[in-house]
Design a protein that fits this description.
The complex is a heterodimer. By secondary structure, chain A is an alpha/beta fold. Chain A is built from 12 helices and 14 strands. In chain A, 44% of the residues lie in helices and 22% in strands. Classes of the chains: A alpha/beta, B alpha/beta. The complex binds adenosine-5'-diphosphate, magnesium ion (MG) and zinc ion.
Chain lengths: 360, 211
């Protein structure tokens, strides 16, 4: 898979932007605040159907405008690929792949894949469990559309169940109990499937994670990633039954895939609280690298790799080690200053060169 | 702002489902242009519908008079009832030409988000019918989405203990496959399921095997 060009219109700070990507490494240089991450966000939207940094669709639209457009053109399995997205401040988004409208934005994931490294990836290690669940779920979503369908079903059922629990106001009437029975059943079917797929992926990531970490951190260390289910390995249906009193009292679902932890450890110590900043940074990079490798291996195609301003945060060794670990493929790097000598870009552009007239 | 009568028409049209301000304007200007006989025919049709069409006292399908055409038709098999969410589903099932029983229109699906629980649906009416009409077979033809499946599951749990045969026909289709008109029925659904499998790389979700 190769992305040839990207165009942004009224997207974030850009009135218009167009960029032709080199088949290998393209570097975009720009001062802080000039829109490097915004550009990355536009490209990543084409793959994720959402902001990679979790921002709302509304935030994508340039201030003072109603709609933002993103268009990407490239080649996938020897065929031309065109992805067009229209994001509205109000109302539905429109997504077209090769001019065919997609029913579901989530199906974008089959057209294009990207891996993004960003400075705030540190939160994958230091932040709360939601960061790690999203990381794993996004990877699962890239691996199979079926996983995305399962995730959407879990989200929808959870919203229904939580709404019902709120409506119950702590009461346990026969109607609430019997309706809860149904949502429990639905949540357990899709939730157990989601949990099983997460556990399987985490298992497959163990080896690539260790390899990447050892290269970046120079040495042998015992990094591990472990799935800790809030249901304590009970089938979800039994776990939900066990906490029903609690759930009704609190008006929310207290066990399930939305409450699970993906625990990271270096040796016997939890990385979130015990690792040094340097170790945490290496581990965050390793997580991205390991997933990137697994996607290549499984999909038989290399996702576009984007390194957004990551070198400013890395010491010389880690920067070079990261570059040496990157599998061959198409790469976009952004930076505010210089790059490590080994980056070997094919094309270097500045943000100012890319924007149309009037962009700020 | 247009002349008040025109603006009133635009406002009224804009209150229709799926009609935004732009479409409302377009329709209103179209109505201005057409011959007045055509306009009157439309106005009459609206008035007649409101006067004559009501819901069937037995199954809640739309009808003229007390009972709908199916409930009135003595050749239909009154021991078999197909439960659907919406009156439009009745038409869809009829079109297959395979079902010879009667209907029961629930009036929606369970969805707490939309404030719909069993009490907002015609569930108690269904239970009363099962009892009063010696119904022996209930076919649940809910829409193939999460809420439809939850509703079918809810009803199945409620009805099965009554010694009535219960079949679900809309489950097992990939969720998310909410085609423009997701209104399926028994023979249709099998054909559709096969088509879907071929056309849709998503395939069957793992959980669908359970059904
Ligand atoms: N919706 C928007 N409309 C206009 N400007 C925006 C919008 N969203 C963000 N910006 C601007 O984009 C700039 C940040 O761009 P960013 O891509 O984060 O810069 P960097 O090059 O440092 O990565 C800020 O100046 C911000 O004001
Ligand atoms: Mg940035
Ligand atoms: Zn009737």
């Amino acid at each position: 898979m190769r992305l040839g060009s990207i165009e942004l219109t009224n997207f974030r700070n850009y009135e218009t932007l167009s960029l032709d990507l080199a088949p290998t490494t393209t570097v975009v240089i720009g001062d802080n605040g000039t829109g490097k991450t915004n550009l990355v966000e536009g490209i990543a939207w084409l793959a994720l159907g959402a902001s990679f940094r979790g921002a709302s669709d509304e935030a994508m639209v340039r201030v003072g405008q109603d709609k933002a457009f993103i268009r990407g053109e490239g080649v996938r399995q020897d065929r031309a690929l065109q992805v067009e997205v229209e994001l509205s401040r109000v109302g539905r988004n429109r997504v077209l792949v090769n001019r065919q409208r997609l029913q579901r934005v989530a199906d974008l994931g089959d057209a294009l894949q990207v891996t993004v490294f960003a400075p705030d990836d540190l939160k994958l290690v230091k932040g709360g469990p939601a960061n790690r669940r999203i990381l794993i779920d996004r990877a699962l979503g890239s691996l199979a559309a079926r996983n995305r369908a399962t995730q959407q079903e879990v989200d929808r059922v959870l919203r229904q169940r939580n709404t019902l629990l709120k409506q119950a106001h702590g009461r346990r009437t026969a109607e609430i109990e019997s309706t809860l029975d149904v949502w429990d059943q639905k949540l357990s079917t899709s939730g157990d499937a989601l949990i099983a797929s997460r556990v399987a992926l985490i298992k497959r990531l163990a080896e690539p994670l260790t390899l990447a970490y050892d290269t970046l951190a120079r040495g042998r260390s015992d990094v591990s990633m472990t799935y800790r289910a809030s249901s304590h390995d009970l089938p979800l249906l039994a776990a939900l039954a066990a906490v029903r009193d609690d759930d009704i009292r609190r008006g929310t679902t207290t066990v399930g895939p939305h409450r699970d932890e993906v625990a990271l450890a270096i040796g016997s110590m939890p990385a979130r609280t015990h690792a040094s900043q340097g170790e945490q940074r290496s581990l965050a990079l390793s997580l991205r690298l390991a997933i990137h490798r697994l996607l290549i291996e499984t999909l038989g195609a290399t996702p576009l790799l984007i390194l957004d301003d990551v070198f400013s945060e890395l010491d010389d060794h880690r920067a070079r080690a990261l570059l040496s670990e990157i599998p061959v493929g198409q790469v976009l790097m952004t930076t505010a200053s210089s790059l490590p000598a080994t980056a070997e870009p094919e094309r270097v552009l500045s943000v100012a060169e890319l924007v149309g007239e009037g962009a700020s | 702002m247009y002349a008040p009568p025109l603006q009133t028409l635009i406002d009224e049209l804009g209150r229709m489902p799926g009609i935004g301000p732009k479409s409302a304007q377009r329709i209103a200007f179209h109505l201005l242009k057409i011959p007045s006989t055509d306009a009157r025919r439309l106005a009459d049709a609206i008035v007649v519908v409101k006067d004559r069409v009501s819901s069937c006292a037995r199954c809640f399908n739309v009808c003229e008079g007390d009972l709908c055409e199916f409930c009135e038709d003595g050749r239909r098999d009154g021991s078999s009832v197909c439960v659907v969410e919406d009156v439009r589903d009745v038409v869809a099932v009829e079109r297959t030409g395979e079902f010879r029983g009667l209907y029961h229109v629930l009036g929606g699906a369970i969805s707490p988000i939309e404030g719909i629980g069993p009490d907002q649906l015609r569930v108690s009416e269904l239970l009363e019918r099962i009892e009063a009409e010696s119904i022996s077979e209930v076919i649940l033809a809910m829409n193939p989405n999460i809420e439809g499946e939850a509703t079918a599951m809810y009803l199945a749990r409620l009805i099965s203990p009554l010694g009535v045969s219960v079949t679900k026909i809309a489950s097992g289709l990939p969720v998310g496959l909410q085609i423009a008109a997701p209104r399926f029925a028994e023979p249709l659904i099998l054909v559709l399921a096969k088509l879907v499998q071929r056309a849709n790389p998503i395939g069957w979700p793992a959980w669908a095997d359970k059904y």
